[in-house]
Amino acid sequence: MGERYFPNHYLDYNDDNETLLIDGSESLITSLCTDFLRHIRVFLQELESNLTLSSSKDFTIYTGSTGIVLLYLKLYELNAFENERQDILRKANSLIKRSLENIGGGKERYSFLCGQTGVLACKVLINHARGKDYSKYLRIIRNLAPKILSDSTELPDEILFGRSGFLYSLLMIREKIEDSVQILDDNLIRSLVEKILKSGQLTSQREKNSSIPLIYYWHEKAYVGAAHGYAGILYILLEARNYLDDEKELNTLIKPTIDFVLGLQFPDTGNYRSSLNNTEDRLVHWCHGSPGVIHLLSLAYQVFEKEIYLNAAIKAADDIWHRGLLKKGCGLCHGTAGNGYAFIRLFQLTNDQKYLYRAVKFAEWCFEPHQHRIRIADRPYSLFEGLAGTIYFLADIIHPKQARFPAFQIKF
Ligand SMILES: [Zn+2]
């Protein structure tokens, strides 16, 4: 099998011919912004003309209609779309109506990315932006909690389908809408954090001789990456650090588990395996591999202030620069746009222009999403597999300090 990435022919950042990429207001310099916005508009037109043809019932953020809503909410924030804000909200609202109609069908799921909570959370954000009442939707989300807190072994803890994906929704809404605290209160968030910790502890206790305090499986595999594994679950727990007991939970359960993950880094490349039993160094994706783990390492560095996390993140970033232009295309989950966020994160963390430069180069690579792939994704216009994700990344990088990997990063 051939390589999974295109060779990176861009010159790497070089301190000798340093060019300034960011202006005083921490936006990309005008020439880059203009270029990025031009591509955003072209791709948006392509996306929208294909949306009208779609009769898909997929309501998810990951591959369905609500992912497009999340993209609209991102564009709504951009100054360049200031005069189109009402139109954007109208389009987002008509799409979310369709999503809400479709959440009844199929398997009950509660995560942000693949469950009904993502739809409800986006409806909250839209109504908030339109000055309409959103408490009804907050209550529906709140009323889902008993199912997530139940002892069902059916429900995983990972982000894509599981508990930490539900926890993300609560933390994100709380961050964006101050008075949501009245319905999504601290006790609710605390109970979810406890549940996820308890679940990992119980699994660890069941394994004989386990030295890892928290163990998580998805479909009987201990995944490492952001989508199904440790990186995602531990990352969301760290985002919820205000709800953790420092001594008993943060330092005794979470940190040793992060250190275990840290130790899985391939010494030669800096990448991470996809699951514990898999020793191959193959996937360099947000979902599987260092582009997801790097967010955990970055946040761990901020929380624990240990250089070892930063050094591991820097090593991973060098590898992503070389192996991160993916043949799977320019999406977020397993594509070049998702990998570009790894550099944005390191730029946020270190202020080193090198990482912003690398993110910009990955973004420019995404200017040709149809050429820069060898296979078309099943959902080629979706947020996590397709063009909507590419647009989201191009829009987010315009204000790199405010950029957030969607459905994952909350604060900085
Ligand atoms: Zn993926």
- Average residue pLDDT: 95
State the major sheet: none
Structural class: mainly alpha
Bound molecules: zinc ion
User: Low-confidence runs (pLDDT<50, min 5 residues)?
Assistant: none
User: How would you describe the oligomerization state of the chains in this entry?
Assistant: single chain
| Helix and strand element order | HHHHHHHHHHHHHH
What coarse outline follows from CA principal-axis ratios?
Answer: globular
Percentage of residues in strands: under 5%
Tally the helices. 14
Terminal Cα span:
39 Å
- Helix % is 40-55%
Secondary structure tally: strands: 0
Radius of gyration from the alpha-carbon trace, in angstroms: 20 Å
Organism: Dermatophagoides farinae (American house dust mite)
InterPro entries: 6hp_glycosidase-like_sf, LANC-like, LanC-like_prot_euk
Protein name: Glutathione S-transferase lancl1
GO molecular function: metal ion binding
Give a verbal description of the structure:
- The chain is 52% helix and 0% strand.
- With 412 residues, the chain is mainly α.
- The longest helix has 22 residues, at 30-51.
- The protein binds zinc ion.
- Zinc ion binds at residues 227, 285, 287, 333-334.
- GO terms for molecular function: metal ion binding.
- Zn(2+) binds at residues 287, 333-334.
